[in-house]
């Protein structure tokens, strides 16, 4: 990856201090058909990353149709896509032109459920039609999981809560390691290090701020609420990113951040409770505030490309489409990272069985990175 690629990303928006937010209801976004621009590999040296809160991976794995379903019969012709009523993770990958990395959140798989994890690995690599490549590394994936193991804060539904899964396309061939962090026991953080481009991707399912109690993971004693834990989560994630940037890595944070940053990101309005306002300001100060002011200085890829355009990633299925929505899923990138394209696939088709829609970014990779070694640091857990 030595050759430099032409710069195709738009100029970055000028950063400005967060202005005070009011409770004024925002005008209803204009409802019109929107051209969904899907990423293509516009240059050799680029990586496409998707993020999606899938809200339960089981429907996309259970009762997966056999490849024989798509073979022609006497009364039908072969179909290249699965029936609309049958969600398929492989169909998503194909529809998205097989991205390099897919960060899934809220997979809702119990840590002891190795059968479901094996099913995910099988389904993502099983062709859906006779004409689909079955052995090309550009269409095959490895699946890595971080599932909840907090016996006090992640116990509902038999442990089938939270959890993240990162799918990595096999032709990348440059993974140094995939790992978790010791401060997350709820299955919310999964780190993928790509050695050759020097890129680290954080798959994040951030804490949702509520008044529900947060318990010490060891003793079970209540030590605060989920608002408090959310801000601690922000700070610890920031520290991880600083650590990587200090070693020369470019950082990508992709996933459900459970935060709407400005009135542009919510309809009909932002949550304005005291704790939500504090959480929002803490997020801005931590991640997007420039480094000179103590933040990470990360760039919101969607805003960089689309400016003040209104699009949303949280689309609750219990409501009429367009009534109540938020942009809480983000892909943030380091200051020096080249953004080629980014978008939100804001449609009912892409939402599927979830209450969120996917989003993506394409990042230009200009220079290979020398091997990185972390000195004076005890190794952390690696995951499969």
Task: Write structural notes for this entry.
- Helix 1 (89-95) links the parallel strand 1 and strand 2.
- The protein starts with 45 loop residues before the first strand and ends in a 20-residue tail after the last strand.
- It is of the alpha+beta class.
- A six-stranded mixed sheet has the order 3-4-2-1-16-15. The protein has a six-stranded mixed sheet with strand order 5-6-7-10-14-12.
- The protein has helices at 89-95, 114-123, 226-246, 274-288, 301-306, 348-351, and strands at 46-53, 101-105, 141-146, 164-169, 175-179, 189-194, 199-205, 213-215, 222-225, 250-256, 266-267, 299-300, 325-326, 329-333, 338-344, 359-364.
- 16% of the residues lie in helices and 21% in strands.
- Mean pLDDT is 82; it is low at 1-43, 64-71, 73-84 and 368-379.
Mean of pLDDT: 82
Strand order of the largest sheet: 3-4-2-1-16-15
Quick one: overall form? globular
The amount of beta strand, in percent, is 15-25%
The N- to C-terminal Cα distance equals 27 Å
Question: What Rg, in angstroms, do the CA atoms define?
Answer: 21 Å
Unreliable parts: 1-43, 64-71, 73-84, 368-379
| Record field, number of beta strands | 16
SS-based class = alpha+beta
Compressed to H and E, one letter per element, the order equals: EHEHEEEEEEEHEEHEHEEEHE
State the major sheet. 6 strands, mixed
Count of helical stretches = 6
Fraction of residues in helix: 10-25%
